[in-house]
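Project standup — Tuesday

K.O.: blocked on the structure for the chain from last sprint. Re-posting the sequence here as requested.
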Amino acid sequence: MGENIAEGQHTVDEVMHTGLNSPGHRRNILDPRFEELGVGLALGRANGRYRVLWAQAFGTPR
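H.V.: unblocked you, prediction finished:
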């Protein structure tokens, strides 16, 4: 199981570009053991400003 979390990117292209340029995130994205992917996006306000949060969950079927 692997997980990536990101904040602030507004498009899929932006979050993938950022992830592929981060060694830990890149390792999860390109890990050949992971065959399944779940993606979550949350929009909300915190401390008076809007925020964009992303989550990627990577897994392998049992």
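K.O.: great, moving the ticket to review. DSSP finds two helices and three strands in the chain. The longest strand covers residues 36-46.
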